[in-house]
Structure formats: C-alpha cells, structure tokens
Design a protein that fits this description.
This protein has about 240 residues and is of the alpha/beta class. About 35% of the residues lie in helices and about 25% in strands. The protein is elongated.
Length: about 240
C-alpha cells in the first residue's frame, strides 16, 4: 500500500468515514457501542482494513451534511451518492450500489407516469440536498419542490401539507406506502441514485485507489455479500461495472 494513499485517506492514522444516517438502506443497524452497521459502514471498514488503519464513523443526519463534513475536514471519505453538483467539490469513485428514485402519489391521484408529475402547480415533497433532490432541481421544468430534512421529514411534509407527490428511493417509498391507504408508487424512475465513495479532489492517489477498490469490491462479490448480510437484497442492486 502506497504511503501517499494512506497519508491522504488517514492522515491521523484512522480512516474517518462520513456516514449518512438518514439512508435506511445503507445504514441498517448499530452495534452495542453505537457504531452504525450496514452496507456503507461495511464498505468503509473494508477500505480501512485494506489501508491497515482503524475506522471511525462520523455520523451525519443528511447526505448534504456528509458533503459539508468532507469539505470542512470532519471526515476523510464521504459515503454518499455521486451527483454532478457534488462532483464540483468531491472526487467520486464509480458507484458500488444503485437505487431507483421515483414518486409516491396519494390516493385518488390522476398521475400515472413519471412525466405526469412535472406540471405547473404540482407540489413535490423531497428530502433536501439528497441526490434525487439535486437531480430534480436541475431537471424539473414546471413542478415545485418542497424540501424537508431527511426522508422522514419529507414524508411528514407530504402528509401534513397534502402535497401532490413524494420523491424518494423506491424501496423507502414502498415502506411509506404501507401506511398510506390508497397511495401508489409510479412505475419507472426519474433517475437511478449511484452510491459511491468520495474524497477531496486534491487527494489524487486516494481517488485512484478508491476507484480501483470499488471495481474490485463489485467483481469479488464483496458488495453483494454486504447486501445479503445486512438484509437489503432486492432493495439494493450492485451497480453496473460500467458506471
């Protein structure tokens, strides 16, 4: 292992991994000591093992806060989705898992397709600064985004304000729909969220290492094993090696 890589990713001797605690697909539990468990923490630990250093999980309440934490040197890697707006200040690996993003609509909604939602006057609840919020912000032409903190906050806003649609990750929306009689999940997706690993752009040796690590993790079956181990098979997909 190149000392340059270790110096860039764990300058203090410990890999500080920024974890988005709001993503219930990638963070599925906790140890008795309060450390997060799941696919994202598992990937971070595997990276630390490869580097030969300890891992410390820096917990954030939202993906936007993870990105901010990397920029303020609160963490060394960011376990969040790769997205063009974030890539302006973060060097991302290829994706290791991907998740469809779509809409949930309330009972009685006339919407049938993804395209139906982007109309004047339509109000969409969304988790602020999520990857799908960033995508919709630059893609929607007519509908209005109403932001809340985290998926739970977006769901609460959708219900209380009787909004027209709830944007989110399909597996999470499926769970939301179970408690909303008559609610439907629209077929298809407006984007596929690409969960990746980010580091500071100046960490060129580290960025190359993370890119190679993710490719190996997918090819070796590590990502698939983590998905199976943490009970999210069928809800998370190993990302294409072409991503």
């Amino acid at each position: 292992m190149s000392q340059d890589i270790v110096s860039e990713l764990a300058p203090g001797g410990t890999l500080r991994a920024g974890i988005n605690m709001a993503n219930m697909l990638l963070v599925t539990g906790a140890t008795s000591a309060g450390e997060p468990t799941g696919v994202a923490p598992g990937m971070a630990r595997a990276i630390a093992d490869r580097l030969g250093v300890a891992v410390s999980y820096v917990q954030f309440a939202s993906p936007g806060e993870v990105a901010d934490g990397l920029g303020s040197d609160a963490c060394d890697i960011a376990m969040i989705a790769a997205e063009p707006a974030r890539a302006e200040t973060i060097a991302f690996s290829a994706a290791y898992v991907e998740i469809e993003a779509t809409y949930l609509v309330p009972a009685g909604s006339a919407f049938r397709t993804i395209e139906d939602v982007d109309r004047p006057g339509v109000r969409i609840a969304v988790s602020g600064r999520s990857a799908y919020d960033l995508y919709l912000t630059r893609s929607l032409e007519h509908a209005e985004l109403h932001r809340a903190k985290g998926p739970a906050g977006a769901l609460d806003l959708f219900v209380k304000e009787e909004l027209d649609a709830l944007a989110g990750l399909r597996p999470v929306l499926n769970m939301n729909a179970e408690n909303l009689p008559g609610a439907r999940i629209l077929d298809g997706s407006y984007t596929t969220v690409q969960q990746a690993i980010g580091t500071k752009p100046e960490n060129t040796a580290a960025a190359a290492f993370l890119q190679a690590f993710v490719a190996e993790a997918k090819e070796s079956g590590l990502v698939a094993r983590l998905i199976e181990q943490h009970g999210v098979k069928g809800r998370l997909q190993v990302a294409s090696t072409l991503v």
